Fold this sequence. Notes:
By secondary structure, the protein is of the alpha/beta class. The protein is built from eleven helices and 24 strands. It has helices spanning 15-27, 66-71, 131-141, 155-164, 187-199, 249-254, 301-314, 347-353, 402-414, 419-423, 439-455, and strands spanning 3-5, 8-11, 33-37, 74-77, 80-84, 89-92, 97-99, 102-105, 109-111, 124-125, 147-151, 170-174, 203-205, 210-215, 222-227, 233-234, 237-240, 244-246, 278-280, 330-335, 338-344, 357-365, 377-385, 391-398. Strands 4-3-2-8-19 form a five-stranded parallel β-sheet, with helices on one face. A five-stranded parallel β-sheet has the order 10-17-11-12-13. Strands 20-21-24-23-22 form a five-stranded antiparallel β-sheet, with helices on both faces. A hairpin with a 5-residue loop joins strand 23 and strand 24. Helix 1 runs parallel beside helix 7. It starts with a strand and ends in a 5-residue tail after the last helix.
Amino acid sequence: xxEQQTDILIVGGGPAGMMAGITAAQFAPHKKVLVVRPEAxxxxxxxxxxxxxxxxGTDEDMAGRxxxxxxxGQLQFGRVESIDRGQHTATLSSGDVxxxxxxxxxxxxxxxxxxxxxxxxxxxxxxxxxxxxLDQLFSTLIPTIKTLAIIGGGFIGVEFADEIRKRGIxxxxxxxxxxxxxxxxxxxxxxAVEKKLTEHGVQIHTQCKVEALLPDAVGKKVAQVQIAGRxxxxxxxxxxxxxxxxxxxxAQAMGLTLSRSxxxxxxxxxRSREDPAIFxxxxxAHKQDFFTRRASHAMIASQAAAExxxxxxxxxxxxxxxxxxxxxxxxxxxxxxLAFGVAGLTQQQAESEGFPILVGESRLPDHHPAxxxxxxxxxxRVIFAADSLQLLGAxxxxxxxxxxxxxTMGLAIQMRATAPDIASMQFGSQPRLTPSLHPLVAATGDAxxxxxxxxxxxxx
Length: 460
């Protein structure tokens, strides 16, 4: 057993942990920063589905260590088994002990496996953020599959389906809701994604509940998926992709307060309730919605990295200019040239929360003139609070510009921009790079036209 001392100990080396380490090293250069994670080789979480198609291998999705090391942080491989809050020590599975001054828990999440029969069968798997598990999946199970069922029609299910079908595998997506991606998008985007997947041969089963996974004649391997009210679906493997839960075992053992949603309770600076020297970031930390302060379950790498930056800045003194004002869901993905993104609330979510809303839409080419090569149509949909005209949410269907459009929308939401703010926004325009009229501005103009038409009927 060995003992070592560090000023800042970060447990977990995913996006949240690594960003906390990088930021801490930048803001406290006189302090020793140590990130401890169990994996020698870490993968980029958002890139995992692409291992099985576009990237063609696990080695192409590796997360680099260089930014942490360049900032002055250190990386150590090991598993933290227990933490003593009183003594400020962490004990690894090897028996080694680390003494710390500040502690950041970035222990991530674990996949939720539903309580249905058959999930223990061979051929049933979930996506692990682990190099060895993914590499084994890529090299052993995937090459044997002819038919795959994916339980869950969220981002992971949709992205994995599009990537795995590129290998000539028959893919079925089974979703309980009426549409894929319905928890994140309004109907226009959902149906566009479904159409694109269907064009590529992916078979979609919505409003379907899986009752059991059935074994083969030997009783060892999955062979069928039993969907309620339907004949069994013959498969070679099943991917379960219906969500994750915070990994809070260490926090529970330490006696930290957990929220009712299961994450570690943290304040606006990511500090735990029990000890201002202990922080939590990423999937293991509790999140509150930006608008309602209700529990938010958006466990995505970009949110985790943002929380890591917040904690890293505030370990040795609060900086009021940067703190968590709540979680804004900002997502984007792409299937065969169709990009789709969302920031903030959907129309359905806003209405269910009780917001009177105002909606605007626009359809524009993403270059100008529209005869420019590789021009695609951009559909933009914005949702404002009808009384304050504050931006609540926005969605995009388009091409290569979609990702940055969604990020712009996310920033506008966080800045509490209103429709007049956005309608008067100044923006740059370049024929090969942008449309002549910003899609967000155009959609906002449509919303304001509807708004003022009620106040000034003579405008119609």
